[in-house]
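> call design_seq(struct)
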């Protein structure tokens, strides 16, 4: 078996908030879980693993996946984001690295926008909607109980 026949994956995404996925990732022998890797760590890991793939999350990265990090050893990058500013897409194209993100995924059509949710929560806070709703429900239940 050659060095690139067995896919190896570098997971740069912290998974503390999703323990079941973290457990699954840690159980896979072809995955290196390295959520707080430095740029130098990533460069060395890629150099040592031809045919590798990278799972990343721009919210936890302090560096960009660019010419200082990426090489022909990388075959794919999967990012848990819609934004792609943390990846040099032109370089990936020239090196033949496939990039997968939520940007092209149809799953986003089924997920409410974070911005819409934030706006809705802000309006609920500004207008005291939760308090007023609870007050109304309490008041209604007392009226119904007295009838």
């Amino acid at each position: 078996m050659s060095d690139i026949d067995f896919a190896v994956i570098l997971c740069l995404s912290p998974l503390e908030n999703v323990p079941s996925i973290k457990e699954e990732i840690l159980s896979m022998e072809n995955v290196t879980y390295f959520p707080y890797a430095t740029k130098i760590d990533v460069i060395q890991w890629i150099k040592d693993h031809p045919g590798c793939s990278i799972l990343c999350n721009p919210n936890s990265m302090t560096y960009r996946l660019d010419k200082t990090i990426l090489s022909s050893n990388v075959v794919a990058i999967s990012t848990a984001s819609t934004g792609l500013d943390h990846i040099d897409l032109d370089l990936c194209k020239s090196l033949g690295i496939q990039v997968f993100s939520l940007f092209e995924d149809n799953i986003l059509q089924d997920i409410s926008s974070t911005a819409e949710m934030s706006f809705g929560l802000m309006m609920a806070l500004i207008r005291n909607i939760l308090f007023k709703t609870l007050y109304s429900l309490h008041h209604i239940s007392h009226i119904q109980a007295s009838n």
